[in-house]
Design brief:
This protein has helices spanning 2-16, 45-55, 125-130; strands spanning 33-36, 62-67, 76-80, 83-88, 100-105, 110-114, 119-123, 133-138, 146-151. It is α+β, with helices and mostly antiparallel strands.
């Protein structure tokens, strides 16, 4: 009788436990933190126009992908409308929070492949058509691995003020 009482909880624990499977498909880097916002101070119209002209992204069929936080030099490849539009090693500037700005096509989904984390971020064409700017940041956590913010405004990336030590 005592053996049965000891084996019953053990058997229940074994039945309830499952081994975890690690996904190696594109869904492994699934983003669960997508937001849409206009609630920040945007750059002036002149600054926005200058950036769009510099990136050749003024056309209605173009949007701007901005890589922001926690990029530390791992290879990132951006594929937009079936063409590789960027391949590099972005590093986030600690002062401004900006890593890279890239013009993308908003007529097809855009894939951001991050070799450092092994994840992929997919920016849908429907969202990039509605919003001119897509900001992608690494969270530093496994899930969600990225934050994506869509906006019609260009964020201001100015150096943060240095705190001076009191004497």
């Amino acid at each position: 009788m005592k053996k049965i009482l000891l084996l019953l909880p053990l058997a229940l624990m074994l039945v309830m436990c499952k081994s975890t499977k690690r996904k190696t498909t594109a869904t492994a880097g699934k983003i669960s933190n997508i937001s849409y916002s206009e609630k920040f101070k945007g750059a002036s119209a002149a600054e926005t126009a200058t950036l769009l002209k510099t990136l050749d992204a003024s056309a209605e069929t173009k949007s701007v992908l901005v890589l922001t936080q926690n990029f530390i030099g791992g290879e990132v490849t951006v594929v937009s409308a079936g063409k590789q539009v960027y391949k590099g090693y972005p590093i986030t500037d600690k002062g401004t929070g900006l890593a890279e700005r890239i013009a993308i096509s908003n007529t097809a989904d855009t894939r951001v492949l991050d070799s450092y984390t092994g994840n992929e971020v997919v920016l849908s064409a429907s969202d990039t058509k509605k919003y001119k700017f897509a900001y992608v940041a690494r969270t530093g956590k496994p899930k969600p691995a990225y934050k994506v913010l869509y906006s019609t405004k260009l964020k201001v990336f100015k150096p943060k003020k240095q705190k001076t030590a009191a004497r």
